[in-house]
Amino acid sequence: MFKPLPAFIGLRYAGAQRRSDDSVGLVSFISGLSMIGLILGVALMIVVMSVMNGFDRELRERILGIMPHATIYNATVAVDWPALRDQLAADAEVESAAEVWQVNALARRGSEVTPLLVQGVNPDTIVNVSNINDFLSSNAFPAMLDDSEPGVILGRGIAEKLGVEQGDYLSLIVPNNDAASGSRRAARVAGFKVAEVFHSGTVLDQSLALVSWEQAQGLAGQKGGAGIQLRVNEMLEANWIMRRLLKDLPRDGYYGTDWSRTHGNLYQAIQMSRNLVGLLVLLIIAIAAFNVVSTLVMVVIDKHSDIAILRTMGASTRQILLAFVSQGALVGLVGALVGGVLGVLASLAVTDLVAGLESTLGIQFLKSDVYPVDYLPSELSWADVALVVGAGFLLSLLATLYPAFQASRVQPAAALRNE
């Protein structure tokens, strides 16, 4: 017999299987169900947290990798934009800057029309603040800058709505809002050739189009929309950095916006979903863990005579209590560890599994016009794994206290009298 004695007794009870005794078989069955529930709860919790981490990563690295952290505009066009760009880029908290001209427009091809955000960019500087170049071929920007046939780079979602491919032609329409000019034209219209269709796998595929700076200036009709896009060192401090930069500029029409205004609702939705789903799955783990209570209560009832004999042989109340805590701790430890291993494996494979299921069934579960990305991302965090496994084991351990306390209160004389 190894020591300590409580651990030996608890492990012996946990592994006891006497087939002739129906009560022991029922106890073993309930104990197994408790362990399976804990395993599934822990594994599911790790997978859910990994998926939420994946969405958070895609927001930061993909969506905000393409879009700027902040943009400073001026209502007038009489600004030396290259000089302003260099001035802002020189700030210690600004990683890079690039000029942009943004125009809200409509794209039309035949009878199909869809709204989009047109950005006029300088290919030499846009790559400093955006990773859009990662989703384009080397010929995309040269084709966009072709003077003979002005090009436009479209997101795949826009191209699918319009039914266009690379090399096709479409029209960009910008309403004329300047009623004071007396212009008879209701809108400015320009024809473009599709230079390339990019697929970032994000919601930007449904709304973003790129043209040259000069073409965007013509679409805007010398109106506002020009600005400087900024990529800052600390994304979460983008709003504060933008406000500080605005204070250093002359107060003649400068204003700005940051990612928290354009995509902040998406970031908050991801965080809220993570918290709510995490809470629900944690409740599942708690239910599975507290099934240990019913298992140990039945063990205590079944082992009344054994407990009484142990007490008469000199076992202390503390030793009896620790014996049943050891039994419940074994169930919790095995369930949490096995669930942790399964959760890690599932988190590493869930993206490929869902992609394979989509390919097999011919169904796309996530679409970028509804969700932030068009695939299921996953990012495993070992800190989350440790937290979930530890929480599962701790809840199981807490669940053992009540039945263990009841076992420690068994009176030897009363228990043996009923045998």
Automatic annotation (TrEMBL):
Membrane topology reported for the UniProt record: Multi-pass membrane protein
Localization in the cell = Cell membrane
The segment(s) forming the MacB-like periplasmic core domain are 31-220
Q: Which residue spans traverse the membrane?
A: 26-52, 276-300, 320-338, 385-405
Keyword flag Nucleotide-binding: no
**Record keyword Cell membrane present:** yes
Q: Which UniProt keywords are listed?
A: Cell membrane, Lipoprotein, Membrane, Transmembrane, Transmembrane helix, Transport
Every copy of the ABC3 transporter permease C-terminal domain together lies at 279-412
Q: Which InterPro entries match?
A: ABC3_permease_C, Lipoprotein-release_system, LolCE_TM, MacB_PCD
Give the family per the record.
Belongs to the ABC-4 integral membrane protein family. LolC/E subfamily.
What name does this protein carry? Answer: Lipoprotein-releasing ABC transporter permease subunit
Organism (species): Microbulbifer variabilis
